[in-house]
């Protein structure tokens, strides 16, 4: 059963993808699909959003697939993915070709230094917001801090770190009573780091 | 040919490491692309991440950039497919069953257990980018200035980033 026709879904997803610059990319979907067009309810969006976070893979494409599937079945999932990935991929390919050919003059190279430093500032804020917006607790903080130290300063391979930390984290969470169900954290501080 | 297969395989397993945000996979992607396989330099990697931030769509499109740098158009296509296709199929399959699964106790446990790991990985991603991008007082000041401007919520992130780029360029002339 399709709630939204495929051409409409492709048009809305393409536009949402193209306008999702900078921070809060998943929030653009919430605004476009829930608030402005009423394609789905807020709680349905939160379900798909949680799914896209828990599953491995780039969150933004996972979210597009989950929302597309909900709105228009398997074809909606496929076209939702194509609509948000393809335009950006073509733009980045063009930029990559210019970069590789050395078309970036010394001026642009200097500009890139400033831009990449600024991007570090941007992803820092996004990460801090996600940390502050998530449910805290000593055990979760220990797991996050150990994971950070291992893959950041220590430069250990992420696969091993994730396996060890996931087992540790499951054990720590399993060995304590589940917290009472609480309202989900707000959606908006979902920034460029969560794509 | 062998390196193309290696590129595809590497981005395939890297895509599975994107838990709780694409930023989390950056340390390992940098390690593999720069130190292990020499597909590009650390500087090019940071520039690629910056370009993918300035491009609409998922920032994991950096896979397309690395693939292009390593093996041209074919490399970009294979790296992009490896990054997005398998995990999207998984998302589709789980979407189909999620209505029933999400109320089970283990679903909540998985969420609680994996989110702290994802957050640690994201913070590691910030560290990895900073190690190359921040190398003197000017770049450090630009990063802090952008962070403060974005944190006020009054400046659109892209405007803050572009302004910092322009200021950095003016200062370094």
Can you put this structure into words, describing what you see?
The complex is a heterodimer of chains A (195) and B (173). Chain A has 195 residues and is mostly helical. Chain A has two domains: 6-134 and 185-194, no CATH class; 136-178. Helix content of chain A is 72%, strand content 0%. In chain A, helix 1 (6-19) packs across helix 2 (25-36) and helix 6 (138-151) packs antiparallel against helix 7. Chain A is flat and about 50 Å long. Chain B is an all-alpha fold. Chain B has one domain (2-133). In chain B, 80% of the residues lie in helices and 0% in strands. Chain B has helices at residues 2-16, 26-36, 42-54, 62-101, 105-133, 137-151, 157-171. In chain B, helix 6 (137-151) runs antiparallel to helix 7 (157-171). Chain B is globular, with a radius of gyration of 18 Å. The termini of chain B are far apart. The model of chain B has no long low-confidence stretch (mean pLDDT 89). At the A-B interface, helix 1, helix 3, helix 4, helix 5 and helix 6 of A face helix 1, helix 2, helix 3, helix 4 and helix 5 of B.
The proportion of residues forming helix of chain B, as a percent range, comes to over 70%
- Percentage of residues in helical conformation of chain A: over 70%
Biggest sheet character of chain B: none
Radius of gyration of chain B: 18 Å
Protein traits:
heterodimer, A: disordered C terminus, B: 173 residues, mainly alpha, 0% strand, globular
Concise structural overview:
The complex is a heterodimer of chains A (195) and B (173). By secondary structure, chain A is mainly α. Helix content of chain A is 72%, strand content 0%.
Indicate the topology.
The complex is a heterodimer of chains A (about 200) and B (about 170).
Chain A (H helix, E strand, L loop, with lengths): L5 H14 L5 H12 L5 H13 L4 H42 L5 H28 L4 H14 L6 H17 L21
Chain B lengths: L1 H15 L9 H11 L5 H13 L7 H40 L3 H29 L3 H15 L5 H15 L2
Helix pairs in contact in B: 1-4, 6-7
């Amino acid at each position: 059963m399709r709630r939204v026709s495929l051409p409409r879904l492709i048009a809305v997803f393409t536009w949402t993808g193209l306008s999702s610059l900078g921070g809060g990319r998943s929030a653009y979907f919430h605004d476009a699909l829930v608030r402005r067009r009423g394609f789905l309810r807020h709680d349905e969006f939160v379900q798909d959003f949680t799914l896209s976070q828990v599953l491995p893979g780039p969150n933004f494409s996972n979210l597009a697939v989950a929302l597309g599937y909900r709105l228009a079945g398997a074809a909606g999932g496929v076209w939702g993915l194509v609509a948000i990935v393809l335009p950006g991929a073509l733009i980045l390919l063009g930029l990559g070709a210019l970069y590789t050919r050395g078309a970036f003059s010394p001026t642009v190279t200097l500009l890139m230094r400033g831009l990449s430093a600024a991007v570090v500032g941007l992803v820092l804020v996004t990460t801090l917001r996600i940390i502050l917006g998530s449910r805290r607790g000593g055990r979760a903080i220990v797991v996050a801090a150990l994971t950070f130290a291992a893959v950041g300063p220590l430069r250990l391979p992420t696969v091993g770190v994730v396996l060890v930390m996931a087992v540790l984290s499951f054990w720590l969470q399993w060995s304590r009573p589940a917290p009472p169900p609480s309202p989900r954290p707000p959606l908006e501080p979902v920034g460029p780091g969560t794509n | 040919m062998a390196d193309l297969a290696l590129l595809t395989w590497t981005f395939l397993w890297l895509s599975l490491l994107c838990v709780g945000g694409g930023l989390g996979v950056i340390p390992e992607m940098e390690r593999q692309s720069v130190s292990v396989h020499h597909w590009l330099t650390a500087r090019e990697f940071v520039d690629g991440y910056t370009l993918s931030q300035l491009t609409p769509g998922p920032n994991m499109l950096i896979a397309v950039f690395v693939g292009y740098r390593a093996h041209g158009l074919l490399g970009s296509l294979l790296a992009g497919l490896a990054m997005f296709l398998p995990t999207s199929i998984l998302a589709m399959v789980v979407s189909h069953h999620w209505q029933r699964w999400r109320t089970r106790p283990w679903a909540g446990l998985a969420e609680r257990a994996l989110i702290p790991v994802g957050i640690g990985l994201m913070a590691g991603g910030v560290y990895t980018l900073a190690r190359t991008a921040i190398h003197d007082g000017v770049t450090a000041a630009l990063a802090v200035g952008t962070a403060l401007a974005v944190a006020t919520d009054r400046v659109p992130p892209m405007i803050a980033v572009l302004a910092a780029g322009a200021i950095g360029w003016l200062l370094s002339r």
